[in-house]
Amino acid sequence: MRDVLVYKRLAGAILGVFAVLILTFAPPAWMDRMGNFVHGELDQSAEGRLHAWEFAWVFASQYPIMGGGFETFTPQLEARFTPQYSFAGPHSIYFQTLGEQGFVGLGIFLLVLGSTLYGLRSMRRRVRGQPAFTWVVNYSNMLQICPLDYVVSGAFLPRAYFDLWFQLVASAALLRILYKQEMSALTAEQVEKPAVAGLVEAPVG
């Protein structure tokens, strides 16, 4: 518990240093843009994202089960369903999935994402305090951090089908399989040892 608090304080200190460095050395153009966001003034890029997300919602409302399929975000379809806006593209893994795969596809996408993160966390908690499974903790930490980056950055990028994301999901599943195999092997050894000891210690008639 003490180590966890130390790591949290260290992470907070590092974030504080990065914040100071950004505020000190960031270009004036970037600072002006961030100031516009704070005061509610959106630039053209931000407005385009909001318009694209509205198109995804309107389109998925019309085709909630299957969506429009791959390559739904086209100038023709956006002009048809949201003619008041210009073409912008999806700009989000969530709204991209919503528009192209519908509410069902978005639900499956979020279910896979959530179950992967929850499975890694629960597996790490089960092996906590067991030296034989330190490798499980290390790999689960790595595999949990990587999807979190994808979740955050993907909110503003059209990378719903990024292949590395699927590889991370597969790696998490493989880690769970290896953990179960190792656990079964250790359990079998614990069952066999008392039996062998009983045979050795049995009196000879």
Describe this protein's structure.
With 205 residues, the protein is mainly alpha-helical. It has helices at residues 2-25, 28-38, 44-62, 75-81, 93-126, 134-153, 163-201. The longest helix has 39 residues, at 163-201. Mean pLDDT is 76; it is low at 195-199.
Provide a compact summary of the structure:
The protein is mainly alpha-helical.
So what's the oligomer here? single chain
Determine the strand fraction and express it as a percent band: under 5%
The biggest beta sheet reads: none
Order of helices and strands: HHHHHHH
Overall pLDDT: 76
Overall geometry comes to elongated
Distance between the termini: 55 Å
Key structural traits:
205 residues; mainly alpha; 7 helices
Write the layout of secondary structure elements.
Blueprint: H1 2-25, H2 28-38, H3 44-62, H4 75-81, H5 93-126, H6 134-153, H7 163-201
Helix pairs in contact: 3-5, 5-6, 5-7, 6-7
